[in-house]
Amino acid sequence: MIQILNPSKINSTDWPWQIPGNVWDEDQKKDWPKISIITPSFNQGQFLEETLRSIIFQNYPNLQLIVIDGGSTDESVNIIKHYETHIDYWVSEPDLGQTDAINKGVALANGDYFYWVNSDDYLEPNALHQIAQEILSKNADVLLVKIRALFEENGKTSKPYSATICETKEHSLINAQMSNTLFYNLHKAKTLFPLETNLLYAMDFALYYKFILKYGIDGIKNSEGAVVNNYRFHETSKTNTNLALGKMETRAMHKYIIDQLDPPDFFSKYFEKAKYNESLKFDWEIGNIDKSIFLGVYAKNIANFFYEHKLYQLAKVALNYAKKNSQKIDYKLWFKLNIISPYLMNKLRLIKSKI
Predict the structure, then answer these.
(1) Are 301 and 353 in contact (CB under 8 A)?
(2) How far apart are CA 96 and CA 327, in angstroms?
(3) Where are the beta strands (DSSP E) in 220-272?
(4) 14, 15, 16, 304 from 11: Cα distances, Å
């Protein structure tokens, strides 16, 4: 039995502070795919013990746990040492941030599938057994699992949600919702690493996009199971404080793909107006993307951006381009651009002419 370090949790009977009793022998390990869990860590000692216990006490019989700590100066290293007999590899040294830590962990991982669990999150009980069963039954290369946001300030939780897959890979690259909810086939994922270390917020998008660009969407499956991970929002969490910066990173990825497709001029107008991280440089193989679908879908999104910024003529150009490329357009926006806006402009001209 592993002693609990957190004094406030010593008598707790809640997960993951209680000690389950299952023990697996070597023969039982053979029946389950090996799952590599990577935990990037830096100065999250107040949450790290809960994170590690939620992984260790899954009692999953074929688990590899890797902790990559970025040289924490709080109690994190003491917590890691306390649990190190249950950790396959750990290190604490300065690094270039979360993405660098994940890169290091993936390089060391040797499982069949991998997932990263942030050092301020925690897994639900029996999560890994559920995931393994679904991966095997669905023959999934990527499994989109459910997570739940936990708001530390008030203790409330969100409804379960997950990343999404759309009807085509082009739609998925643009409109898929993302969160750290993906279990990857490790052999295929390793072909996509390392990720760009200057990605500070949207490394999960980058990996998902790279997978879709190389392997398509056929191997991506939705989980039908329960919540797997609890994603904690607190005052120092990156997701909570820098959502806008994350969007700038994903927009930079989109721009990289679009630039390979010889887009019409209004795309450059959009990226002049929309904020994206100009420091990010990519060298991805974009593969066989249907140009008309990708640019058509993106043009529909751009039209709304132009309209919101009162660039009505550019909005009309973008919307017409989307329609030309067989995209279902927003007819409320079409009505505003083609009926309401011209009517109001004419009224304004008449008023000015009478002054």
Answers:
(1) no
(2) 41
(3) 220-233
(4) 9, 12, 12, 54
The radius of gyration of the chain from alpha carbons, rounded to an integer in Å, stands at 24
How far from 170 is each of 248, 260, 300, 324, CA to CA, in Å?
Answer: 20, 14, 13, 17
C-alpha of 257 from chain center: 18
Q: What is the DSSP letter of 337?
A: I
pTM: 0.89
Structure tokens at 176: 């898929």
Cβ-count burial 257-291 (b if 16+ within 10 Å, e if not): bbeeeebeebbebbbeebebbeebebebebeebee
SS3 content of the chain, % helix, strand, coil (to 5): 45, 15, 40
Question: What phi-psi label fits residue 61: left (phi over 0), alpha (psi between -120 and 50 degrees) or beta?
Answer: alpha
How far apart CA 199 and CA 250 sit, in angstroms, is: 10
pLDDT by residue for the chain (355 residues), tens only, comes to 578 888 888 888 889 988 665 555 555 666 899 999 999 999 999 999 999 999 999 989 999 999 999 999 999 999 999 999 999 999 999 999 999 999 999 999 999 999 999 999 999 999 999 999 999 999 999 999 999 987 767 777 788 888 888 999 999 999 887 767 899 999 999 999 999 999 999 999 999 999 999 999 999 999 998 899 998 875 665 555 577 899 999 999 999 999 999 999 999 999 999 999 999 999 999 989 999 999 999 999 999 899 889 898 999 899 899 988 877 766 666 656 665 555 555 554 555 555 5
**Measured at the alpha carbon of residue 234, what is the angle toward residues 151 and 64, in degrees to the nearest 5?**
90
Answer yes or no: are the C-beta atoms of 76 and 92 closer than 8 Å: yes
* Two structure tokens written together for 345: 């402009």
Q: Please tell me the distance from the alpha carbon of residue 55 to that of residue 63, in angstroms, as a whole number.
A: 9
